[in-house]
Amino acid sequence: MVVDGKRVFREILEVVIPALILFLIIRAFLFEARYVPSPSMHPTIMVWDRFLVEKVTYRFRKPERGEIVVFRPPEQVLKMMKEAPVPNTPLQTQDFIKRIIGLPGETVWIREGTVYIDGRPLAEDYISPEREPLYEFGPVRIPADHYLMLGDNRNQSWDGHNWGFVPRKNIIGRAFWRFWPLNRMGPIR
């Protein structure tokens, strides 16, 4: 049996090209896999956990408090990183993952380990007592179309209490499903 090299190559291209195009469309508009390189979201997400980010929800509704999102850092963060770079971290790949705490128009402050939203304490069952913030913050009013993002491991998270608010346009998507490690596979809350 003689194999025609051109025919085999063409058949491979007929499979590979559409698969590659489909992959790029899915990654650009629907889902993408991410991981966490730091302890900033402990205990919810551990270092090197892999998870999926969906990019569709926020096209139809606004982000909500408590959701865990991946976002591009605001300009002031990029400026801070240029002035004091994080070793071995290229700026263009440094997207962040944090929890949405404050919504546009709200006044937020942190006192004695408790987050207050418009004067009311925020119930945060995802924060263990040893991870309650040791710092104070605010009060600050969140501008229109901006969000306050904080890590669940408040004292080991470089987040909104350090650099301010994230514009909605910087939000890439919502983390929703951990797929690695297998023993912790499941929804992210």
Quick take:
With 189 residues, the protein is α+β, with helices and mostly antiparallel strands. The protein has helices spanning 5-29, 75-83, 160-163, and strands at residues 31-35, 50-54, 68-71, 96-102, 107-111, 114-117, 120-121, 137-141, 146-150, 166-167, 171-180, 186-187. A hairpin with a 2-residue loop joins strand 5 and strand 6 (114-117).
Give a quick set of tags describing it:
Umud Fragment, subunit A, 30% strand, 12 strands, 3 helices, alpha+beta, eight-stranded antiparallel beta sheet, 189 residues
Could you characterize the architecture of this molecule?
By secondary structure, the protein is α+β, with helices and mostly antiparallel strands. It has a single domain, classed as Ribbon (Umud Fragment, subunit A), CATH 2.10.109. Helices cover 20% and strands 30% of the residues. It contains three helices and twelve strands; from the N terminus they run H-E-E-E-H-E-E-E-E-E-E-H-E-E-E. Strands 1, 2, 3, 4, 9, 10, 11 and 12 form an eight-stranded antiparallel beta sheet that branches. Strand 11 and strand 12 form a beta hairpin.
Look at the structure and give the mean pLDDT.
89
Distance between the termini: 57 Å
User: How many strands?
Assistant: 12
Please give the radius of gyration in angstroms. Answer: 20 Å
Q: Given the helix and strand composition, which structural class is it?
A: alpha+beta
Q: Which range does the strand content fall in?
A: 25-35%
The general outline is elongated
Main pleated sheet: 8 strands, antiparallel
Counted by DSSP, the helix tally is 3
Number of domains: 1
Q: H/E series, N to C?
A: HEEEHEEEEEEHEEE
